[in-house]
Amino acid sequence: MFDRLASPELMNFFRGRKHDESLLDELKLELIELNKVLNDAEVKQITDRAVKEWLEELTDAVYDADDLLDEIATKGLRCKVEAEYQSGLNLVRSLIWIVTSLFDYGVESELEKIINKLGNLEKAKDVLGLGKEVGQNWSRRLPTTSLVDESYAKDLELLQVKLKGSLSGKKFLIVLDDVWNENYDHWDILMTPFGCGAHGSKIIVTTRNESVASIVQTVPIHGLKHLPEEDCWNFFSIHTFEKGDCNAYPHLEKVGKQIVRKCRGLPLADWNNVLKSALWELPDEKSNILLALTLSYHHLPSHLKRCFAYCSIFIKDYEFDMKELISIWIAEGILKKPKSNYEKPKSNKTVEEEGYECFHQLLSRSFFQRSKANNDLFVMHDLVHDFAQNVTGDFCYRLEDGMLNGISEKVRHFSYVQGKFDGFDKLKVIKDAKCLRTFLPIGSRTSGKQWLSKKVLDEILSGLTRLRFLSLARYQIVELPYSIGNLIHLRFLDLSDTLISLQNVTGGSDALEAKLREKKHLEKLVLEWGSTTDDSQNKILENLEPHTNLKHLKLTIARMLGTTNVGIEFYGESGSLSKPFQSLETLRFEEMSEWVDWCILDAGVFPQLQKLEVIRCPKLIGDLPKGHSLVRLKIKECPELVASLPRITSMRELVLQECQGLLLEWQGISSLEIVKISSFASNFASELLTLTNLKQLKVSWCPKLVFPLYCYTSLERLSFSECESLKSLPLGLFPKLRSLEINSCVNFENLLLPNEIELQNLPLLETLYIRFCDNMVSFPGGGLPAPNLSDLWVCYCKKLKTLPKQMRTLPPSLQRLIVWICPEIESFPEGGLPSKLHVLWIWNCKKLVGSRRDWGLQTLPYLSTFTREGESEDVLESIPEEGLLPSTLTKLEIGDLKNLKSLNKRGLELLDSLEAMEIRNCPQLKSLPDEGLPTTLSELLIEDCPSLKSRCRREEGEDWYKVAHIPGIIMDDEVIFDHKYPGPPESAGPSVSFSEVYPKFQ
Fold first, then answer.
1. Are residues 622 and 580 in the same domain?
2. What is the enclosing helix (H) or strand (E) of 893?
3. Interhelix angle for 49-83 vs 18-35, to 10°?
4. How many domains does the chain have?
5. CA distances (Å), 427 to each of 196, 251, 431, 464, 708, in order?
6. Are residues 72 and 182 in the same domain?
7. Is 888 part of any domain?
8. Is 196 within a domain?
9. Which residue has the higher pLDDT, 803 or 94?
10. Whether residue 698 sits in one domain with residue 599
11. Which residue ranges does the record annotate as region Disordered (predicted)?
């Protein structure tokens, strides 16, 4: 805010208007006074409701002031830009008219209103006792005074002498719990009296801050992980039930297990209240976890407090990306570029680097933790998320399933779970949230196509003029409304996975309208281009030239079929002297079939290059740029390329495919992908032996290559495709393995385990994919002892007769089981399937389907998705069969059932939780049950079912009324949602449809 008040645009705007300059000074003084008590208020709000309400009012006023100042500065900047095209008297008249008109619209009165509100809050702070000195219960004397008589406590030196005398020659164990001080000198002073103890004396330090641990450590740090749910339950039982026996209280066991599940591996929570009470409703003297989080939050610098609190916008368990979050922090103005002061010289750090530092500080303090499923993503523990929600109060609103409550006028940040069809009714809750700054749909990174109603774009988003962050990612949007230009506060617009590439820009005039040269505050730009070059396309590229202030550039050049040479003109008219690529981080050339030569200038031409990809350039010869900051190198299908790259210390990921002519030094690489390489240079074998720290290895289409697998005991991810030499795989070599894929290895027969009776042979394995291995005959004889296995795919294994034994107990965490085209598998293993199974997909397994009444799916309490696909010989005529599926099922997919003639009315009625249904390639299915489809359905897909599609045709088909209640419908190439339910055919009066129909993008 203080940066905003000092901005040149704002100062120039107010200069010469004495009254308004005094208002600006008054605003600044009020903010200075209130800022003095801000830290105190942030701590006291946790336990004092009145302080929390005061802080919310202050935050609301500051948001309003920031928006107003931003609007003034933006319009002032617009005046300046427009003035560049005017001169003389016209310029003066224009500026006077614009300034006057702005204040005619109430800017001055809005500023006065904000100042009055801040003034009232400044008076109220004294009533609340904010900023007054309070006694501190912690000091640098406290750890030592607790060990000796308090009479010595006033003299630190005397106290340490006394303590040294008490401990001299004695063996002791001291625990310093919950240490926060990061100053090494203070730690050194604290340790002075302890150096006289007997051999074997120990000091244990506990902390939630890794920086503290790194300062005090003399042995490796031991990070405490979450307790497994079973251990949590045992711990809970011992402290809750008499003699730890829950059998004596069977009516309480279910409640107890719900409490344990809620605590998510943190047994610090208050067991009696955590199930029914939100975290902030627990009194601090009863909640150890709240005290711990409050203390952690208290020790955060103010900018980290804001960064942490903003994360409450995410839904629980959402796996977020570090770069994505930093971009949002920057867009929202939470992070600012570091500036110099009297004590420190000017910082050269960028605002992104400042963001990385903030992120890692929160990570080191355990506010964030790495995702178990994806090491590149992060999550917040439920209780930490609850705490963040308490801090942000009404300013963050998460629209989650089942939420019906209204939205506060104070809300500034909005997120929602992205659905397949997001219509006006779902999002109308924010139509009047005129102060909204963030619009963030949160969706799965692996989900398919999704649609957003045009009515939302035209009638909701166009009116949210204070938006700073707007994401429309993953939606099938073909154009934006003209009203997007009214969002003058917008800092970040995410259109990823909507417009696919620049071919959608049809001419130079369209590109010129983007005015990239004028956007001097634009810091990051991604351009993708691929087509045969012609004059019009060159004009488009020329008109998309960004401002020179750009800090991050990603450039993709693909399918330029006429290009034979990338010469000096690529670097501009003056070659390397102009240094046009100082911001380039990612460079990708793809499918340039005639490209022969690349003119490489000096090594400094790409100083920030981190990712280089050259793909399918079959005639390219010569060398590659030698960037010292390169992290990822991908060379694919470049058989003529002959290049030598020295060791690059930053290199971590290397992908090579059909490029035998490369000479590389591989030390330090942790991820290696080798594709379609039959031989390498003579040093290849010795280089492979050096990769002892390799964590990821992917080998494809290398029939004769043999890898020294015994060297790679650190492997976490291993993948083989089209490797004829692979016949078996000894899993015992890889104790850290998390993911294993074996694809199209025609000679592969089995997986091996040395000690099949050992139940922890594969303690970390999470995913196992075996596909197109025609000669595979067996899994390990004793089953798969993989307690953390969540995904198992067994596909196109035509000789395999059985799935792993003891599936119900050995992989107890299995959530997804996919079995395709395994004609010899007759049944599931004895004992049935794991109770935690969520997804089951069976396709073309004739013998297995024959035993379907013995599967016991109705007993699986978590099964939510069932997919049943058949073959030409499948004789099934009706589905779902009554009583064979659990009522918990939320998604049913059926396909390739050539003889299916009807949907079982009673079978559907029993699926009272069903939300989505897909019907594919069932040509004999001609109609729906008279009662229609379940009212719980929100999604329906009908594909390659011509008779059924005709009957369900929108508004005209005989069965349309049976499906019209479903919010989202896809029928082949037609997408229908935001439509009005007409009611059954006997209802009186015509119905009006508001359907939106989009072509399905292929």
1. yes
2. strand 891-895
3. 140
4. 4
5. 68, 42, 8, 13, 56
6. no
7. no
8. yes
9. 803
10. yes
11. 981-1002
Computed over every residue of the chain, the mean pLDDT equals 77
* Residues 504-548 pLDDT 10s: 555 556 666 666 666 666 666 666 655 544 545 555 555 555 556
The domain in which residue 184 lies consists of 142-216
585 and 702 inside one domain: yes
Given this model, what pLDDT does residue 298 score?
77
Q: How confident is the model at residue 396 (pLDDT cuts 50, 70, 90)?
A: very high
Q: CB–CB of 788/763 below 8 Å?
A: yes
Q: Please state, for a pLDDT cut of 90, what percent of the chain lies above it.
A: 21
pTM of the full structure:
0.66
pLDDT at 681 over 50: no
**Domain stop point among 710, 733, 750:** 710
Using one digit for the tens of pLDDT, what is the confidence trace for 814-846?
A: 999 999 999 999 999 888 899 999 999 999 998
Does a structural domain hold residue 115?
yes
Residue 866 tokens, joined: 């069932």
Element (H, E) at 524: strand 524-530
Instruction: Measure the CA angle with vertex 405, ends 403 and 409; round to 5°.
Output: 125
| Between 409 and 216, residue with greater pLDDT | 409
Do 966 and 937 form a contact (C-beta atoms < 8 A)? Answer: yes
Structure tokens at 543: 């008109």
Domain boundary at 195, 216, 237, which?
A: 216
Helix axes 229-240, 250-263, angle to 10 degrees: 130
Same domain flag for 123 and 146? no
- Beta strand residue intervals within 127-198, DSSP E: 173-176
Verify that 28 and 165 share a domain, yes or no. no
pLDDT, residue 262, reads 60
Same domain, 288 and 204: no
User: Residue 866: its pLDDT value, please?
Assistant: 95
- DSSP annotation string for 638-696: -TT--EEE---TT--EEEEES-TTEEE--TT--EEEEES-S---TTHHHHHHT-TT--E
DSSP state of 267: T
Beta-bridge partner residues of 919: 894, 942
Predicted local distance difference test score (pLDDT) of residue 652:
74
Look at residue 833 in the predicted model and tell me its pLDDT.
92
Q: Are strands 492-494 and 202-205 parallel, antiparallel or unpaired?
A: unpaired
Residue type (1 letter), 308: F
Neighbours of 445 (CB within 10 A): 9
> How many CA atoms lie within 13 Å of 929's alpha carbon, on the beta-carbon side?
15
State the Cα–Cα distance between residues 272 and 277, nearest whole angstrom: 9
561 and 687 together in one domain: yes
The answer to whether residue 86 is domain-embedded is yes
| Helix, strand and coil in the chain, % to nearest 5 | 35, 15, 50
Residues 6+ apart with CB under 8 A from 858: 883, 884, 885, 886
What are the structure tokens assigned to 924, written together?
């004999």
Provide the CA 329 distance to its chain's centre, in angstroms: 14
Token code pair at residue 80:
């300046």
- CATH of residue 683's domain is 3.80.10
Mean pLDDT along residues 617-627 = 79
Q: Which amino acid is at 435?
A: C
Measure the CA–CA gap between 681 and 664, rounded to whole angstroms: 10
